[in-house]
Amino acid sequence: MIRPALPLVLLLPLAACGMGDDESTEGNATTFSIHAQSDEGNTTITGDGGKVGIRIPGFEGTIDIPGFQLKSDDLDIDGVKLYPGTTITHFGIRADDRGNRDSGSVDFEFVSPAGREAVVEWFRERFAEEDMTVAQTEQGFTGTTSDDDHFTLTLTADGDEKTQGKFTIGD
Fold it and tell me: Which N-terminal residues, if any, form the signal peptide (predicted)?
């Protein structure tokens, strides 16, 4: 079975996101990691600084994807976009399909160009607009997606004009 290669297929649309001639992303490339475990073998794909390392059963190599940068318009959770001008610094996928397991998660880390309170308010309004079931916590928000996947959103002030965040969906 080719299941361990599935994350490689998932990487292909990501490779096209946020690429172009815009040189303003230089030095700000999004890192990413995909880790999948199955009874047929393990798959790992990692990217940092335009280099992508791939390890799947029967293949190991590195390819270049220069300028890979995800931004606020490239992602949404059930219609909720990130704060305008946000840059995704890391995107990760983890899956475990060994034996009776069927678990996984998607997480991404980001930096928003606004103070924490403005970003909290942005998400509070967008979650309400999309009728999402969420609870505000001291760290950010928790809730459930339309697919009944649990999520957490952690927001941390990084000075007065920046907010660091982490969105985790799944296990």
Answer: 1-18
What's the number of CA atoms in the CB half-sphere (13 Å) around residue 24? 6
Report the SS3 class of residue 82. coil
Beta strands in the chain (DSSP E): 31-38, 41-48, 51-56, 59-64, 70-71, 76-77, 80-81, 87-97, 103-112, 133-136, 140-144, 150-157, 163-170
Instruction: For residue range 89-138, list pLDDT tens digits in order.
Output: 888 888 877 777 677 888 899 999 999 999 999 999 999 999 898 999 99
Residue for token pair 């297929």? 9
Looking at residue 170, the DSSP 8-state letter turns out to be E
User: Does pTM top 0.85 for this prediction?
Assistant: no
Helix then strand then coil, % of the chain, to nearest 5: 20, 45, 35
With tokens 């490689």, the residue in question is: 8
